[in-house]
Specification:
The chain is of the alpha/beta class. It contains 21 helices and five strands. α2 links the parallel β2 (29-37) and β3 (73-77). It is globular.
């Protein structure tokens, strides 16, 4: 009787799971396991918000397996040690998993595969989280793409997305009985006191089937207007699928196929335009993994050598004000407060707050990646690193260093009625729309009528944008531009 271990990682789903499907096809019994790893570099240990998501995602996956009479084994520690112990205990002779692409994961997986092979254990790995492997899209010179549009255009020429894999036949794959498993609650993934994540549950429902429901709701109700509404944080214009995608509760292939199939039935020009825009965002995720795979220092080092000696500022009070949403710029503060309260931020606002940190405050983009890594429920090493570097101007295909978002103009353009600002900054609720984007320009009598005392219940701007822009351009010109001469 053939028996195999299926090792779950960032693929917490039963459907469209290549490793699970193959394990079921080739074996009489499967032993599914999730290992809470403790040998990840400290800088990239799972963040606090992601821990919250992981708890409920694993709880959902356990329930899904339970419905088929199968137990998901939970273990905490070193994956190699745990796998070796489980192989010995169950007499399994194969391990199946879906690949990961973080630098430390690649090294760990290679070591595990090499060790187990020597011990006579068959290891099988699959692509379960990308549309295309990072090594499959190359330039004519056989180098990797460093410009997104060229990468994505080439990808679209060669992509051949197969149909999703259904949930495999699991009822006949009962695992060996009485395997010891950790209690999920003992991992302490949820915050204790104070419960800073109390609003997470109001906004998110982790789990594979909830991810599928959210995808279909987005496609049927919001996809057609995505290209028009995606940049406006005050309306429901995006899918908010990113945490489900980051945890692997849904695959990019499932998203791709669902959208393509819907387009076939509707045949609307606006829908096709919006679909292409949305799928290009999936493409940016693919591009980010392409960069991380070929440039493993992406999370810590500037992609562009010109930024190696850039004089970033260290200012703890500015950094704290940014983190807490107390910069005095409403659109920035609204974004940072949304992030703190629900573990997520609208993509347009992510660009605004990132530009403010790196170009107004001249604080190193790595401080932004660290904060996002800890506070985002959709924290993803590749996307987080590539996106921050893009905004800072030091990444691949980056926004030019002289492109500096004006937070007031961005606010007026993308939150014209102040809907988003009022949602996340209640102290500004009564402020007339004319002044809500720049409260410091409000006449004193209107501030009084709006119950606002600048410097007391809402801060003055911590920095003048125009002065900051002048200083930033001077720093960029002296350090970055001259380094390329």
């Amino acid at each position: 009787m053939k028996k195999a271990i299926i090792w779950f990682r960032k693929d917490l789903r039963l459907s469209d799971n290549p490793a699970l499907t193959q394990a079921c096809e080739e074996n009489n019994e499967i032993i599914p396991i999730y290992i809470y790893e403790e040998n990840i570099p400290n800088a990239w240990m799972i963040g606090e918000a992601s821990k919250w998501w992981l708890h409920y995602s694993l709880q959902s996956l356990c329930d899904n397996f339970d419905s088929f009479g199968i137990k998901l084994v939970l273990k905490k520690g070193n994956p190699l040690t745990i796998l070796q112990s489980l192989l010995h205990e169950t007499q399994a002779n194969a391990v199946y998993w879906n690949r990961r692409y973080e630098p430390y994961s690649i090294l760990n997986d290679a070591k595990i595969k090499q060790t187990l092979y020597k011990q006579g254990v068959k290891c099988n790995s699959y692509n379960g989280s990308l549309l295309i492997e990072p090594w499959e899209i190359l330039t004519q010179k056989k180098t990797y793409f460093k410009v997104f549009t060229r990468f994505w255009n080439q990808s679209l020429k060669v992509l051949d997305i197969p149909n999703d894999l259904p949930i495999p036949e699991l009822k006949k794959k009962n695992t060996a009985a009485n395997l010891l498993s950790d209690n999920l609650n003992d991992w302490n993934l949820l915050p204790k006191h104070p419960n800073w994540a109390r609003e997470f549950k109001k906004n998110w429902n982790p789990g594979e089937f909830n991810a599928q429901k959210k995808l279909m709701h987005f496609i049927e109700n919001h996809l057609e207007n995505y290209s028009k509404e995606r940049d406006f944080p005050g309306c429901r214009g995006t899918s908010a699928l990113s945490p489900h995608l980051a945890s692997g509760e849904i695959s990019p292939r499932q998203i791709w196929n669902a959208i393509k199939n819907y387009n076939i039935t509707k045949k609307s020009k606006l829908l096709i335009e919006s679909s292409n825009k949305y799928l290009a965002e999936i493409g940016w995720r693919e591009f980010s993994y392409n960069l991380l795979y070929h440039f493993p220092k992406l999370p810590s080092d500037p992609f562009s050598d010109r930024f190696q000696s850039f004089p970033w500022k260290k200012n703890e009070s500015f950094l704290k004000a940014w983190q807490k949403g107390l910069t005095g710029y409403p659109i920035v503060d609204a974004g940072m407060r949304q992030l703190w309260h629900i573990g997520w931020m609208h993509n347009r606002v992510r660009m605004i707050v990132a530009s403010f940190l790196t170009k107004d405050l001249l604080i190193n983009w790595t401080e932004g990646t660290k904060w996002f890594w800890d506070t985002l429920v959709d924290a993803d090493l590749a996307s987080n690193s590539a996106s921050w570097q893009w905004v800072a101007g030091c990444g691949a295909d980056a926004a030019p260093y002289f492109r500096i978002f004006n937070p007031v103009l961005q606010s007026q353009k993308f939150d014209p009625e102040g809907t988003y600002i009022r949602q996340w900054i209640p102290e500004l609720t009564k402020l007339p729309t004319k002044y809500i984007h720049a409260p410091w320009e409000t006449p004193e009598e209107i501030l009084k009528e709006s119950n606002i005392q600048l410097g007391i219940n809402y801060p003055y701007p911590i920095i003048d944008h125009y002065e900051a822009k002048t200083k930033a351009l001077d720093s960029f010109n002296r350090s970055v531009r001259n380094s390329s001469i």
